[in-house]
Specification:
Two copies of one chain form a homodimer.
Chain A: E1 4-12, E2 17-26, E3 34-44, H1 49-53, E4 57-65, E5 70-75, E6 92-93, E7 97-105, H2 109-112, E8 118-122, E9 130-134, E10 139-140, H3 147-150, H4 155-169, E11 175-178, H5 183-195, E12 199-203, H6 206-214, E13 219-222, H7 228-239, E14 243-246, E15 249-251, H8 253-267, E16 272-273, E17 276-277, E18 281-285, E19 290-296, E20 304-308, H9 311-318, H10 320-332, E21 344-346, H11 354-360, E22 369-371
Parallel strand pairs in A: 11-12, 11-14, 12-13, 14-18, 15-19, 18-20, 21-22
Antiparallel strand pairs in A: 1-2, 1-6, 2-5, 3-7, 3-9, 3-22, 4-5, 7-8, 8-10, 16-17
Helix pairs in contact in A: 4-5, 7-8
Chain lengths: 375, 375
């Protein structure tokens, strides 16, 4: 058995370069309560791209190295080097989540019981041929589920579930979601339809309206239309939504959503005093597709909030037991509610192809790449 | 005894004018559980100005009427008329809070027991010679307190107390306050010093630094200095403040405070992952000295929030008993912690003087006007 394995690394060097390589590293060995997973599928999520590219300007990327041992090099703008201070000259293994087959295990009964099973894992360094993990960190899939089917069991499913749980915990009746044609957005619609929750989808393309409508979405507003604000108010009045999750972050959208909520509340008969409606309106920003400042016009009284939202922080907040319940729901519905579709399945070496890099660097296209390290 | 009384009114007319008048209205009579207060002092708070001026452009104000019966008229810009729809042609009585002497009372024992006492009241229409109120809504002052001393017993004192309670309830160690040389800001410093709470004051003038320092404030940062960001980070590291109350609202300040908090947390050894420090940072906007959009640069991870904060909403949230406890504290400390100083004491008629209007329209100068309806 080989004592080494391949693993995707991203390194920011002292001299202002980003290097992407397929490194050869020692194959790990499981200790008593650990298993060794042969990783077969690991998605490239938008949340992977921060570690992947760091602050590099990927338009400067060039391919060096050989076809067996490729390397991509890109420039890091000098003024952004301080933001990468913590990782300079330290190779960063990539890949937040993925799935594979347990190939061997430590001596504990829990670890031994997983041999041969398909398990999913979140924890980094998943763009690797192998990964050790504590047995109790593995999400064990039902029989018959393949690693490709289980690859995206955490980031999108738990984010969608976390959004719905947040809505319930904070007492809102329905949800708004932006960039809603994303993989996550499609999943969130399936989940909301299953659970009888109204969701107002905001998209930026006509064909995204068609896509979500074909999935059964009841409310889809196209922010590029002149009627957008009126459409949004109407959808908010119909659903009574006072909570939004925004993947975009920058620009006016968060403020526009809050304004539309205020108007919808007033038209729906909420008490409106000198400081506007007293029904709390909330936008959680969970992504940064637009890195520019969030601009909030504040034409909506005083009962409002905008803030960051992160799935792992939310899971920590609800506690181990509640989080475990959500993970079990994901495993049970991995082929239905939480199924992911991939536009490309690529090897570790193909992930460093210049065309791939520029394609999966385009966030929120709805395309999703899957890295298959055994390919 | 006169059957009528004087009362300050603000009216937006159908034809796009704002009219300010001293109206003559019926003097009210108390029912069984009510008292009749002869109002002797009522402050002009920044929160009064919204009702006072509506959406009018006060630079267009002209004086009409007579010296005994003055009227001020100003133009309301046409595009702002919809924001005043609810008040068109309806005279709005002004004055959120004030104090006076109970002159007569209804038959109930509770009402009768207040005759002759100095009481403070919050509830609108306080720029009047008289006001009826339920006996149980009156905040009864200790013996020897004058109506002038009791005039500002609600808005600023309960806002300062609400900020400190919010800090405690949401688990923060210390506070940041902007426009901190205001009457409220000075009061908040006195309260924090009494309670051993660190507060970081942000001001925009050198003489405000001197003013707050003379009151014993430990941390005052002047946002007009080139060293402001560094000064703020240092103060945040010293105090561990992760909550700010912002009276300004517009512009970059809220985002700058969050950035400085993030830097302070990282330098103080907080765990900083891919999404920044996980310690929640919060800015509550409670005023709108700058009406321009709030611009948030989001260079501070994902554990952050910005939102509206209103004292009455907070008091409702903590419940009657807790709110009553805070009001009792105000009455007990009205000559010390919660004492207010006024730059001018004016009559109802003098309140419609063009010079007065333009002076108390300048918010956050630290000046505070007191209307004395019996003058």
């Amino acid at each position: 058995m080989s004592k080494t394995m391949k693993q995707l690394h991203s390194t920011v060097t002292q001299d202002g370069k980003l290097q992407l390589t397929v490194a050869t590293v020692d194959k790990p060995e499981p200790s008593d309560d650990e298993v060794l997973i042969r990783i077969e599928a690991s998605p490239i999520n938008p949340s992977d791209l921060g570690s992947f590219f760091g602050p590099a300007d990927m338009s400067t990327a060039t391919a060096t190295g050989t076809s067996d041992n490729p390397m991509l090099v890109a420039d890091v703008p000098e003024h952004l080097m301080p933001t990468a201070a913590a990782r300079v000259d330290k190779p960063v293994p990539l890949g937040i989540e993925g799935a594979g087959i347990v190939e061997s295990a430590g001596s504990s009964a829990a670890a031994q019981s997983l041999i041969g099973k398909t398990v999913a894992l979140m924890g980094g360094a998943m763009y690797s041929e192998y990964r050790v993990a504590k047995a109790d960190q593995c999400l064990v899939m039902p029989n018959g589920i393949t690693p490709v089917e289980a690859a995206s069991s955490f980031v999108n499913p738990l984010t969608a579930l976390g959004m719905v749980e947040t809505m319930r915990m904070e007492g809102h009746a329905a949800l708004v979601h932006t960039a809603a044609a994303s993989n996550l957005g499609q999943m969130l619609n399936k989940l909301c339809i299953n659970e009888g929750i109204d969701i107002v989808n905001i998209v930026r393309h006509k064909h995204h309206v068609a896509l979500l409508t074909s999935l059964g979405a009841g409310y889809v507003c196209d922010s590029t239309l002149a009627t957008f604000n009126a459409d949004l108010v109407e959808a908010l009045m119909a659903t009574n939504a006072s909570l939004a999750f925004d993947a975009i972050g920058g620009g006016n959208l968060a403020g526009e959503i809050l304004s539309a909520m205020e108007i919808a509340q007033a038209r729906s008969g909420a008490a409106v005093g000198a400081y506007g409606s007293t029904i709390h309106k909330q936008v959680y920003i969970y992504g940064g597709l637009d890195r520019s400042p969030t601009q909030i016009g504040r034409a909506f009284g005083m009962a409002w909030g905008v803030g960051g939202w992160l799935m792992p922080t939310f899971m920590e907040k609800i506690g181990l037991e509640a989080a475990a319940k959500l993970r079990k729901k994901v495993a049970a519905e991995i082929k239905t509610t939480f199924a992911s579709v991939y536009s490309n399945e690529i090897s570790l070496i193909e992930a460093l192809d210049l065309d791939s890099i520029s394609a999966f660097g385009k966030k929120a296209t709805g395309d999703k790449y899957l890295i298959c390290p055994q390919k």
